[in-house]
């Protein structure tokens, strides 16, 4: 019995959120469900829906049913979703029932015997950086004949960086100089060379290249690069890589189809200027993605080659991006949406390592992580995974496997809900640099209530995200998330404003150029970890400026000055991982 419809999308686009559509038509019976609202013997009801589909309504007396959309603002802060909730009100005259039917594609999918997609495989820019790499990735995909994969690709190599640079230069280079931009030539040559080496026709991307140059000329003409335009600009990278790879698979006899920013609904309407380049996935994405990919696959089973990183603003309809490295999040979102068996993210390293290999070249792969550990690790700076990417995987309880496309034999890292922590001590050391820290000391008496609330409401009002917090009775030290901070255009004014507001209730010290060193592992052993860590730091003459142990029980964070951070990490990594310390502790744990 339906009683309520809730829509997240634009009803005109028929992407509504629905409940249990699967097998049968759902009947709206106003005499039972809706409230009798309007006079003249009419009954009205509102229908609740949890997953998305196109809606069609049929009644025995069509002309006697009316539909009305109403909208209401809502905010679910914990999920980061705010917007307008639109409800569909169905009004019928007495004894007339409205039948809500699932759409044709869904019905076909449910009834069909076609085996559904089984895994998602994401290949990052480093994995598809050249024609040779694309061939190897194609071989790799085909080496799993038992799977029916959905493929997510990033832009080739450093294309995103080059597009961003080209955009920045276009702002001030003048329209007539756009064609000469080095970064534009680089992007063109890379893609045309790749097409040539793969034996494809250059015409497959000529329209994209023309449009790209036009866009850069538009930027040059306007002398302006807004976050919205920046997202559109970088989207050319993923559009080209997926088109080329799909064409190559088809050429070698494997049926594939390019899927562009498939129904990834993102929030871009919030007040902050950086939302366009750092959009969030909305709940409506999951059913929409499932419908699109299942529908396409069932109608015509061809491997979907999906643009990673890109979304679609649910209100603006414009291209959005999920933040740098966002293709990981695209992959896990698709994994959850389709309820797949496994999510694979293929990188250029043997999995998640004990440390960034650029800081500690002898970092080793970590065989097993929990979603919680991986999320902390990604959030606190490990470039290997997008900070938000673990959320869909954890919600869908779908294992994530991080593998090396250059060395597929390496076992990689498996990320799951739980693992045996009985012997675990320290898993990985992560660095987040260029952090801004605030020391806030209350000017009032001990025991004052509402101080923390006041401080955090100032950050909330300004939409500034806080990373680590340490408090005492009269003071708070906290760090501000640099990824959310430094791409905000007015950041220095905003920081000045924060300080000004806080100074009404406290003495404030703004400390810039700090680093957070996060020790990810088993915080049940925090004394052991801290004893060892502080020994190392003391020997290296480093003064820790703040310590924070989160409630997650997997992360201890230490704040030091930027200039000391890398040296600290190397010393910590060496004493924890290189000298047999952890294996000794683990052995002792298994004896006890
Ligand atoms: N803890 C870590 N484990 C593995 N790689 C890391 C870690 N920290 C930083 N990295 C860096 O992340 C890179 C892989 O991530 P990324 O560049 O996003 O790959 P891709 O572009 O293929 O998705 C590695 O080449 C490595 O330099
Ligand atoms: N191309 C985008 C998205 C992405 O996920 O890339 P990669 O998988 O290469 O980190 C970026 O460079 O940010």
TrEMBL record:
One of its GO terms (cellular component) is chloroplast stroma. Keywords: Amino-acid biosynthesis, ATP-binding, Chloroplast, Kinase, Nucleotide-binding, Plastid, Repeat, Threonine biosynthesis, Transferase, Transit peptide. Residues 440-518 form the ACT domain. It is an enzyme of class 2 (transferase). Pathway: Amino-acid biosynthesis; L-methionine biosynthesis via de novo pathway; L-homoserine from L-aspartate: step 1/3; Amino-acid biosynthesis; L-threonine biosynthesis; L-threonine from L-aspartate: step 1/5; Amino-acid biosynthesis; L-lysine biosynthesis via DAP pathway; (S)-tetrahydrodipicolinate from L-aspartate: step 1/4. Belongs to the aspartokinase family. This is aspartate kinase.
């Amino acid at each position: 019995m339906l009683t309520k419809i809730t829509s997240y999308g634009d009803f005109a686009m028929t992407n509504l959120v629905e409940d249990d559509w699967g097998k049968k038509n759902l009947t709206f019976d106003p005499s039972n469900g809706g409230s009798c609202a309007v006079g003249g013997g009419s009954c009205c009801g509102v229908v609740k829906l949890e997953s998305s589909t196109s809606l069609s309504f049929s009644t025995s007396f069509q002309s006697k049913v009316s539909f009305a959309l109403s909208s209401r603002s809502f905010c679910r802060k914990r999920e980061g979703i705010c917007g307008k909730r639109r409800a569909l009100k169905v009004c019928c005259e007495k004894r007339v029932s409205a039948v809500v039917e699932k759409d044709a594609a869904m019905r076909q999918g449910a009834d069909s015997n076609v085996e559904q997609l089984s895994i998602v495989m994401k290949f990052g820019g480093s994995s598809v950086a050249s024609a040779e790499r694309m061939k190897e990735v194609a071989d790799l995909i085909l080496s799993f004949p038992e799977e029916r994969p959905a493929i997510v690709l990033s832009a080739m190599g450093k294309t995103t960086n080059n597009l961003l640079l080209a955009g920045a230069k276009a702002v001030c280079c003048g329209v007539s100089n756009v064609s000469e931009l080095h970064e534009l030539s680089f992007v063109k040559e890379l893609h045309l060379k790749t097409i040539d080496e793969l034996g494809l026709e250059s015409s497959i991307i000529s329209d994209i290249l023309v449009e790209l140059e036009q866009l850069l000329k538009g930027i040059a003409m306007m002398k302006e690069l807004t976050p919205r335009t920046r997202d559109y600009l970088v989207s050319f990278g993923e559009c080209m890589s997926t088109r080329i790879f799909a064409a190559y698979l088809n050429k070698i006899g494997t049926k594939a189809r390019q899927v562009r920013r498939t129904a990834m609904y993102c929030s871009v309407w919030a007040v902050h200027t950086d939302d366009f380049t750092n959009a969030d996935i909305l709940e409506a994405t999951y059913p929409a993605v499932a419908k699109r990919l299942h529908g396409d696959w069932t109608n015509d089973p061809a491997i979907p080659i999906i643009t990673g990183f890109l979304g679609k603003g649910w209100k603006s309809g414009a291209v959005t991006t999920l933040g740098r490295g966002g293709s990981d999040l695209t992959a896990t979102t698709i994994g959850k949406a389709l309820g797949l068996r496994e999510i694979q993210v293929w990188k250029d390293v043997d999995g998640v390592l004990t440390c960034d290999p650029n800081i500690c070249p002898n970092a080793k792969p970590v065989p097993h992580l929990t979603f919680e550990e991986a999320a902390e690790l990604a959030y606190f700076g490990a470039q290997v995974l997008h900070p938000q990417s673990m959320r869909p995987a954890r919600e869908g309880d779908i294992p994530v496997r991080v593998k090396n496309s250059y060395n597929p034999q390496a076992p990689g890292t498996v990320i799951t809900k739980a693992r045996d922590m009985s012997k675990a001590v320290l898993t990985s050391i992560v660095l987040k640099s260029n952090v801004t820290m605030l020391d806030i000391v209350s000017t009032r008496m001990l025991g004052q209530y509402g101080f923390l609330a006041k401080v955090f409401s100032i950050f909330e009002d300004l939409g500034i995200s806080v990373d680590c917090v340490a408090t005492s009775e009269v003071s708070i030290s906290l760090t501000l998330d640099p990824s959310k901070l430094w791409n905000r255009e007015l950041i220095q004014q905003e920081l000045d404003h924060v300080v000004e507001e806080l100074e009404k209730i406290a003495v404030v010290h703004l400390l810039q150029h700090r680093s957070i060193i996060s020790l990810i592992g088993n915080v049940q052993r925090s004394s052991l970890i801290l004893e060892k860590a502080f020994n190392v730091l003391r020997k290296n003459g480093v003064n820790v400026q703040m310590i924070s142990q989160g409630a997650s029980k997997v992360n201890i964070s230490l704040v030091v000055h930027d200039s000391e951070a890398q040296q600290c990490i190397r010393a910590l990594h060496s004493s924890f991982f290189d000298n047999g310390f952890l294996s000794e502790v683990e052995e002792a744990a298994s004896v006890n």
